[in-house]
Amino acid sequence: MCAAAGFMAWAVRGRSSGVFGPSVWRGPRNGRAVALTFDDGPSESTPRLLDLLARYGVTATFFQCGANVRRLPEVTRAVHDGGHAIGNHSYTHPLFSFRSQQFMEEELLLTQEVIEEHTGRRPLWFRAPYGVRWYGLGPVQRRLRLIGTMWTVIGLDWRLKAGAVVDRIARRVSGGAILCLHDGRELIPKPDISVTLDAVRRLVPLLLDQGYKFETIGRLICPTNLPNASSR
Ligand SMILES: [Zn+2]
């Protein structure tokens, strides 16, 4: 019983679980490439993050919620124009546990459509809200040609102070790591992401000094197959 419950918990939330849909949680370990990812945007504060990343010439992957894209399409366009990749993070950021396949499909499809409408590009990568996957998500991802994306290190930037976020990531980072931070807070307008901005301001130069290189998820996972901008 305990083993079954443990398996279920891992299957639903485990970063390396592919039980409910194929997913990646890190890139190749050989080399110094890592991927910065930001969830729950776009938000009113995303442009400040874009300025910060541009200052260091760093590209990242933004897992955006469709409802936020609908609210702030000009910010989504700025993310795209900045050379970053945009992934799908559902439309309304619901928990997928105990939801129907049809519900999940609508959440993912609407988000594909609104991101394509404003950037001309349909996402290739999907991150489940709260990292929770459920029965029926696998076929939905296959139909929409989305690859599930978890993380190697999660920054806990919604509850830690910036110094603790930086320490946590700096201690756990390694070649191929996918780092998860947030440029929004679910669907909340004007969220306070000052911790994230502060952490990025300290983390990016620290990792660059250690010889790390920042890539989008597409380039991190498939560096040879996707040599050009389509790898986003
Ligand atoms: Zn999220």
Summarize the topology.
Blueprint: H1 2-13, E1 23-24, E2 33-41, H2 46-56, E3 61-64, H3 66-71, H4 73-81, E4 85-88, H5 101-119, E5 125-126, H6 137-144, E6 147-149, E7 153-154, H7 162-172, E8 178-182, H8 194-209, E9 213-214, H9 217-221
Parallel strand pairs: 1-6, 2-3, 2-8, 2-9, 3-4, 5-6, 7-8
The structure holds zinc ion.
Zinc ion (ZN) binds at residues 39-40, 89, 93, 129.
Could you explain the architecture of this structure?
The model has no long low-confidence stretch (mean pLDDT 92). Strands 2, 3, 4, 7, 8 and 9 form a 6-stranded parallel beta sheet that branches. This protein has a 3-stranded parallel beta sheet with strand order 1-6-5. Helix content is 42%, strand content 14%. Helix 5 (101-119) packs parallel to helix 6. It is globular and about 45 Å long. With 232 residues, it is α/β, with parallel strands linked by helices. Residues 39-40, 89, 93, 129 line the site of zinc ion (ZN). Zinc ion binds next to strand 2.
